[in-house]
Every structure is written in C-alpha cells, then in structure tokens.
Amino acid sequence: MDREMFHSCCSLVKIPRSSRQQQPGSSPHFVDYMERAAAYSRFLRNFLLPNQPCMFSSRFTQDWSCRRNWVTEEGKPNFQKLLQEFEDTPVPVANCSAKEYNANPKQIMPFREFIQYWREYIQNGHSSPRGCLYLKDWHMQRMFPEHNTYKTPIYFSSDWLNEYWDTIEVDDYRFVYMGPKGSWTPFHADVFRSYSWSANICGRKKWLLYPPGQEEFLRDCHGNLAYDVTAAALQDKGQFPHFQEACQPLEIIQEAGEIIFVPSGWHHQVYNLEDTISINHNWLNGCNLDVMWQFLQEELSSVQKEIEEWRDTMDTWHQHCQKHLNDSPEPLETTELLEKNT
Fold first, then answer.
1. Of 120, 127, 144, 159, whose CB has the highest number of CB atoms within 10 Å?
2. What segment(s) does the record annotate as region Disordered (predicted)?
C-alpha cells in the first residue's frame, strides 16, 4: 500500500457507509467515466468506499487477446475463431423468452450448437422459434486457464471471493456472456451482494441501475421483486403499490471495449443492444465485506422464520437452518471466506 492510498483509507474508513450511499428517493443523473489509468487510491476513494458505479474506457481492454481474436474487423463476434477454440465445449444457455420464477430457464448445450443457433437467429432478422437464447454464466476462465484471453484490471484485483475459490479449486465467479441482439438479464442484484465488473468484448449493452434501497419500491403486493422494471404492470398500484416512490434508474449505454463497475447492492437489468460478448467477475474485498455479511445474516434470518414452527421438535434445528441456506443459489460456504479474511 503506497502512502497516498494509506491516507485515503485512514480518512474514508471513518465515514459511516450510510452517508456515502445513494439515499432512497434520490435519483442519480450521471456516472463518472475513467478515460485513462489513474491511481488505485482514486478508485478506492471515489467509487469503492462510497459504493458508486463508474465506467472505464476501451483503453483498459485494448491489449486483451480476446478483443483481437474473438472480434471481426467489423466489430462483430468472430464465430469462426470462437468455434476453433471452443467447438465441443458444453456451455450454459438461458432462454430469455421464458420465465422461471424470477429468472430464465437454462440448459447445457455444445458450444457449436449455440453458435449455429446464433447464426440462424441473425439470418432470420434476430428471431427464432426457439426463443432468444443467451450463453451466460460460463466459467470459461476456469475451464481454459491457458488461453490468457484477458487480464483483470488492477482496480478489481483485490478479490477475496475468487481467491478463496481458487484455493479450494472448486468454483469461481468469473464468467463469459455471449448473446444476440435482444438478449437480456432480468432485474437482480449480484450474488452475495458482491461487487461486479463487466467488460464488453464486442457489441453494446444498456444498463438500468437502482441504488441500494430502491428495490423495496419495486416489489409487488406479495413482496416479490419485479422481474422486468420496464413492464407496464408496474404502473398498476394494486399490484406494485410503491412503484411511484422509486427514483428513475441510472441508464448507461456501454460501448465495445468499455468496462462498467457495479457496486454492492445496486439492482440492475441489462439488455444487449447488438450481438455482444462480455466478461464479468463478481468479487469481494474489505470494502464491501460488511454488506455481504449483513446479507448472509438476513438470508439466514429469513430461513429461520420459515421453519420456526419446527424449532421445538428438532434437536438439530440450527443445523437445518444452515443446510437450507447452504442449498440456496448463494451457498453458505462463503461464510468460511469471511472467517478466513477477518
């Protein structure tokens, strides 16, 4: 840690997090843009600790081999090169045209089958009877570590979450996304309320982001989070009684080569405006450890309330609560990471 960063930490760590976050009811109007490399302490001071989003210019990805090898001269996905690298690889593919609870159903298919679908989808005017398919949450880096397709920018390299999973060699939270124009991701916040960064290798995305706390206005009368924050149903006060209290989302158009930093707890919805390839990491460090720990505690409390009526009949009630939380999409093993780093 250099002297500038040390002084930044000392001054900012004393500021209560609540005073640095976007307050409910307020509306963010712009996002800061980092044109070229700056000191890590600036990123820490202006974005990590205040928990505010920002964008990085294409300068930060211009040397990545994937931007040369996966993209044609016209800026489109290079299907031929991609097939040479990943033809028989099984990949997870979501159907954006179908809803399963508050997400899209997924299937595993060979990479070549997805590329064949994608080519046909483009030829048919970006439509298909199979729906709009989106290759997402693919652990490409873990499957092909020798490819060296990109390098994590220094601003996101303090990553306790992936360091932990790398140590036990079980999993990671580094993903590749590939999807045609029109593919999208429903409204959500990132796993464990982690940070995330996402880099467009080619194509363009539209992001709709809401600061922490705003999601409470985007729940229906049953407490369920909205699936699509642009749906007309949200205007129905009987179904979404508090929607009118929500601020306007921060809308960002992300161009090819650019990187977006999404802070902890910022709910978002994302659209591919063109045929797009992107790389995404979820990550955690000391700056958002408290947010993650609070989220896990709240999730455990919810599980406990759900099975409270059986508490007196079970000698292992606490263990059952832990097991239920562990079986959820956001596994409890992450608490081991917290213990390891505190």
1. 159
2. 323-342
**Which of the pair, 301 or 340, is modelled with greater confidence?**
301
Cβ(9)–Cβ(44) below 8 Å: yes
Going by C-alpha positions, the residue among 323, 294, 295 that lies closest to residue 307 is 323
Query: pLDDT by residue (tens digit) across 283-338?
Result: 999 999 999 888 888 878 877 777 777 777 777 877 877 777 666 554 434 444 44
Task: Take residue 301 and report the two structure tokens written for it.
Answer: 């409390």
**How far is residue 18's CA from residue 10's CA, in Å, rounded to a whole number?**
18
Query: 207: which strand partners?
Result: 252, 270
Which helix (DSSP H) or strand (DSSP E) does residue 269 occupy? strand 267-272
Beta-bridge mates of residue 283? 195
Domains and CATH numbers, the chain: 31-211+247-287 (2.60.120.650), 291-340 (no CATH)
Q: Roughly how many angstroms between the first and final C-alpha of the chain, as a whole number?
A: 19
Chain-centroid distance of CA 165 in Å reads 17
Q: CA separation (Å) from 34 to 37, 42, 53, 174, 259?
A: 7, 10, 11, 23, 10
pLDDT tens-digit readout, 33-65: 999 999 999 999 999 999 999 999 999 999 999
Strand 184-188 to strand 195-202: parallel, antiparallel, or no bridges (unpaired)? unpaired
* Six-digit token string for 244: 């009118």
One-letter amino acid for residue 282 of the chain? N
CA 61 to CA 201: how far, in whole Å?
A: 8
Nearest-CA neighbor of 44 among 158, 150, 152?
158
The packing angle between helices 79-86 and 111-123, to 10°, is 170
271, β-bridge pairs: 184, 206
**Strands across the sheet containing 32-34:** 32-34, 54-56, 259-262, 195-202, 276-283, 174-179, 133-138, 90-95, 106-110
Say if CB 60 and CB 43 are below 8 A apart: no
Residue 183 φ/ψ region, left for φ over 0, alpha for ψ in the -120 to 50 degree band, beta for the rest: beta
